[in-house]
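Page 42, continued from yesterday. The earlier attempt failed because a stray header line got pasted into the input along with the sequence. Redoing it now with the clean sequence only.
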Amino acid sequence: MLLNVRMYVCLVYVHNSGHPALYDMTTVQVTVQDINDNSPVFASTTSGGWTLDVPENANMAAVHTVEAYDADVGDNARITYFITGNTSGGVKTIFKLFSDVVTIIVSKQTSHCTNERKESERVRRDVI
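This time it went through. Structure tokens are written below.
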């Protein structure tokens, strides 16, 4: 059975076999360090991600907010968000991410006239 304990404190006692027996004792503190064994996960999503409808003339509008969690602790739980995907189609110039709970912003005017589908892969990763 695994316990969710981060620190153990032990009392160590030592004695000799003399008459009278002499002894000493000390405290030993053992701290269990977290390892990066949990992947970050988005707080709410379907297996296919999100599908968002954005008005053609949207500019500097908040489109969607995403949040991810990591069950590790400390630096192992710190998450970085970034956008990948169709760079030639301008995904990185049209959409921006802001803050730790990420708001996806349309950063320049969009248009449906280009007959082009903008695709972006939302990526979350642990900071290493």
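Notes: Strands lie at 7-15, 23-31, 41-42, 61-66, 68-69, 79-85, 95-98, 102-106, 120-126.
Reminder to self: strip header lines before submitting.
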